Amino acid sequence: MSTPAPPLEPETLNWLNQLPEAVVWLDEKGQVGWCNPVATTLIPDPNPLDKRLENWFQPVARESRMHEPMNAGWWQNNPQRGLVGMAGKRWRWFQVSLAPYKNGQLCILSEVTREYNQALAYHSSLEVLASLLTQEEKLEELLMRVLQTAVEVVPGAEAGSLTLLENGEFRFVAQIGFAEELTQHALSYNHELAWYGLGEEAWLLGKPRLLVSPHIQERTRKHISHELDMFNQVGKLEELKATVTVPIVLQGRVMGTLNLDSLTSTEAFPPESLTIAQTFALQAATVLYGLLTRRNLSELALSDALTGLGNRHALEENFPKVRAQAERLDMPLTLIYWDMDGLKRINDQYGHAAGDQALKILATALKSVFRQEDQVFRIGGDEFVSLHLGLPLSEVPEMVRRVRSAIHVEVSAGAVDIPPLQDLQAALAQADQAMYKDKRRVRSSLEL
User: Fold this and answer.
1) Is residue 195 part of a domain?
2) What is the CATH number of the domain that holds 20?
3) pLDDT of 139-179, one tens digit each?
4) Residue 381 resides in a domain
5) pLDDT over 90 for what percent of the chain?
6) Sheet strands side by side (includes 169-176)
7) What is the pLDDT of residue 265?
8) pLDDT of 398-418, one tens digit each?
9) Cβ contact 145:173 at 8 Å
10) Of all helices (H) and strands (E), which one includes residue 107?
11) 365 contacts 403 by C-beta, under 8 angstroms
């Protein structure tokens, strides 16, 4: 495309034609009157003359990453510098410099897409961190925001997913561009590491990995063939042209993965994509760190400092959940009230350290004898309560016998069956009465 030159001096014209930035001269009406070679390549219109730049560029709102509508006089009235975006399959961003020249304006457009995308990444980090600190959103919602912004900002990304390590498996917790059923699947630790493919050292360092088709499909068939049908059906495996995977590393362990995908080109991801993607993996790690911190604080509030068992508040929170589960599954629910006999005597004769040790021994015995699904709480000085889903009252005496045989202190116990509508206080009162009957029986046997 050739364009007539505006009234520019030959030296100026020669200099502008050799600049690596796009340069446009706008006439007094704000219409394109001349473009240098870079601008003619940039503007997606073979005949841009006498047209307005707002046909292709939109200014960026100061407080948002979204573009704002441009009025006809923006290029004349805007301050000397501003940020504009060019829409397309991928937004491109340009810093604008305007200078009055020959009854019009020279407009220099310097591309800053990489820098602006990085700025968006860090801005998103601050937003996510702010939400985390104020506890406004759940974990899955925060991670979905991380993924959404990553797909929007990372050059080349059109789709993506996030996994979290849970019970030895990487579970898909968020996805964009795939079937919703993807979040119902998980991969083992070893399979995820093998599919990553850069080795454990890079894995633990959180190094981004770029993989392109057909290697994506080959590696999937080789290392996770057992999930091949799933990835074909809900993961668009055959459509993937390029994928970036970044391990989410927290406290020296990989706790999840961020996956960003292109469905259109094997060359979709430029080098800076990996660096920017790593920023979002750090965001996800920040979310997980905050979650674990909150969870630890919550556990401290719900646990007994001496024994590590749940405290009375934890019992109050868990009781209605277990009762509802028992009703839903039509299973018996048994509550046992435990009392360690003679704690005052131990404290008086041997000191409180000995009394604390005796309580720890009882707590350990309770945990070791109980089934994995049973729950035990310390609700007072020498008082413990345990909940047993699926344990009938007829089996309680054997459980009590096993606890007593595992400790060197005396313990009394009383058990009650929990009907569907019984509240905790009523259950504790009945179990407490049963426990005192057992205590009197134990004392009577000792006196004999």
Assistant:
1) yes
2) 3.30.450.20
3) 777 788 888 888 887 888 999 999 988 877 899 999 999 99
4) yes
5) 31
6) 186-188, 169-176, 159-166, 253-262, 242-250, 209-212
7) 92
8) 999 999 888 877 899 999 999
9) no
10) strand 104-111
11) yes
**Type of residue numbered 150:** A
Residues 427 and 325 grouped into a single domain? yes
DSSP for residue 244: E
Angle at 221 between CA 218 and CA 227, to 5 degrees: 145
> Same structural domain for residues 288 and 167?
yes
Is the peptide bond prior to 419 cis by the omega test (within 30 degrees of 0)?
A: no
Q: Whole domain around residue 233: which residue ranges? A: 117-300
- Does residue 3 lie in a domain region? no
**Per the structure, how many domains does the chain have?**
3
Across 125-129, 170-174, 372-376, least confident range:
125-129
293 and 328 share one domain: no
**Residue 199 phi/psi, 5° resolution?**
95, 165
Helix (H, G, I), strand (E, B) or coil at 117: helix
Domain boundary among 300, 324, 351: 300
With CA atoms as reference, report the closest residue to 257 among 271, 273, 237, 243. 243
Locate 273 and state its tokens.
């994509």
The CA distance from 97 to 80, in Å, is: 6
CATH assignment of the domain containing 343:
3.30.70.270
